[in-house]
Design a protein that fits this description.
By secondary structure, this protein is mainly α. The protein is built from 19 helices and no strands.
């Protein structure tokens, strides 16, 4: 009886179509944010431990190598967002029977994809390091990091797919538990492999893969004990029509993520040309940037799931109210983050490196980047709103505009100026986001008018 009551309460808590928007959005968003904070600690801890117990070239190797791995990870996250949106839509429509087919198809699709990605990362690790223009001292270290992470890419993919399923169900707490386990294992692994065994970059990469593997194994054990609103039958484990549905939703998001990460990879290559200190400084700053972007990133994921359920239930007004609520929450946190990063960038950079020159370069980049904390609060709320409506093609198009019209051209120009400063290069990100906001606001007006004409 108590289990029935608990399950009923859990179902109501995960139902975004009723109750206080602010309370339910925050209740869902906080575990998502917590999970992202812990996930960002993977790379941050790698840089911190290598910075303290490894070499300057090791910092550059981890920084450049983790940028390549991040490209793969964010691509998978984008594709998996299609699963989140589709499951949320089916829940809103009360069609839970379709969810088993979605998950069965996802297992087959991502299993094949993991084999392909592993082969690419293992075979082309060094060319990727050279393409990234890693400093000569860090080329082999970068390639080593990519190869080791490529060997364990299956676990990285599995974690993201499992988390996307639960977020689609309105449950953001279990992904938090999964990543918390991984984070603890990664910290222990870094300290053992890098600080004790002096394995430098190889140790950091091994710790990351081991952490993901432990997290996936334990998450599967936890999954078996959950009372879920769906079943996955043996016949669901095949290449079925649901794959096409979540890929159509997720592919544009993934493509946008690829473009965004490619722009940062290109930016990394631009900065690598400036020297080892600038490369290492950007590597440190990039870890701080990852933390800054967690709030808007978690807001976007939460908004996508929240809006998808309400769209499925035919509650467009509530979906729109959620958009403006999310913007308010994001902006309140973004203003605080902006001032802290702008004024205390050197303090934050000092956590990851004790070398004065590296800290100074990191702080310079953060001064230019800091306004991004506010811009993305608005931008990512809008993107989440459109993701929830299945308007992922537009999301991809506006991502193209940000990348090729603003971010890359401005980064290249700023890095090519005589006496180029990381502060000027850092400004490319908030300028691109401002352009993205403009595109999203215009489309919001067009899309709202279109829905009004349809009587929605």
């Amino acid at each position: 009886m108590s289990d029935t009551i608990h399950n009923s309460q859990e179902t109501r808590a995960n139902d975004f179509t009723e109750g206080s928007i602010l309370a339910k959005l925050l209740r869902f968003m906080m575990p998502v944010l917590g999970a992202q904070i812990l996930q960002a600690m993977y790379g941050a801890v790698d840089i911190l431990v290598v910075g303290r117990f490894g070499t300057t070239a090791g910092i550059s190797g981890v920084s450049t190598g983790s940028s390549v791995v991040a490209l793969v990870t964010f691509t998978i996250t984008g594709l998996a967002m299609g699963i989140t949106v589709l499951i949320g839509k089916y829940l809103g429509e009360k069609r839970e029977d379709r969810i088993g087919k979605v998950i069965g198809g996802a297992v087959c699709f991502f299993a094949v994809l993991s084999v392909v990605l592993a082969a690419v990362m293992l075979l082309f690790a060094r060319p990727l390091a050279v393409l990234m223009q890693a400093p000569e001292e860090a080329v082999e270290l970068t390639a080593m990091y990519v190869r080791i992470c490529g060997g364990g890419i299956f676990f990285i993919i599995a974690y993201n797919v499992i988390s996307s399923i639960f977020r689609g169900l309105g449950n953001s707490r279990l992904p938090l538990i999964f990543v918390a386990i991984a984070c603890v294992v990664n910290i222990i692994g870094d300290l053992v492999f890098v600080a004790v065994l002096d394995m430098n970059v190889a140790g950091a990469a091994l710790a990351t893969v081991m952490a993901q593997a432990v997290s996936v194994i334990l998450s599967l054990v936890i999954l078996k004990k959950q009372d879920l609103p769906f079943t996955v039958r043996k016949e669901d484990l095949c290449f079925n029509t649901e794959i096409g549905r979540f890929v159509r939703l997720g592919a544009p998001i993934a493509f946008q993520e690829v473009l965004t990460q490619l722009s940062f990879l290109t930016l990394c290559a631009f900065i690598n040309r400036l020297g080892l200190e600038q490369s290492s400084g950007y590597g440190v700053a990039n870890k701080i940037v990852n933390f800054v972007m967690l709030i808007p990133g978690s807001l976007m994921q939460s908004m996508s799931a929240f809006v998808a359920q309400n769209v499925g239930a035919g509650k467009e007004k509530r979906a729109r109210e959620a958009l403006f609520t999310g913007m308010g929450v994001g902006m309140a946190l973004g203003v605080f983050t902006f001032f802290f990063v702008y004024l205390k960038g050197d303090l934050l950079a000092g956590i990851f490196s004790s070398e004065t020159a590296v800290v100074e370069q990191a702080a310079l980049y953060l001064k230019g980047f800091a306004p991004e904390a506010m811009a993305t609060a608005v931008l990512f709320s809008l993107i989440g709103y459109f993701n929830g409506h299945g308007q992922t093609l537009f999301v991809m198009i506006q991502g193209l505009g940000q990348t090729f019209v603003v971010r890359l051209p401005m980064s290249y120009i700023m890095s090519s100026l005589p006496g180029a400063s990381l502060a000027g290069i850092g400004m490319a990100a908030p300028c691109a986001s401002a352009f993205g906001i403009l595109l999203n606001v215009v489309y919001f007006g067009v899309y709202s008018k279109r829905m009004k004409n349809r009587g929605r």
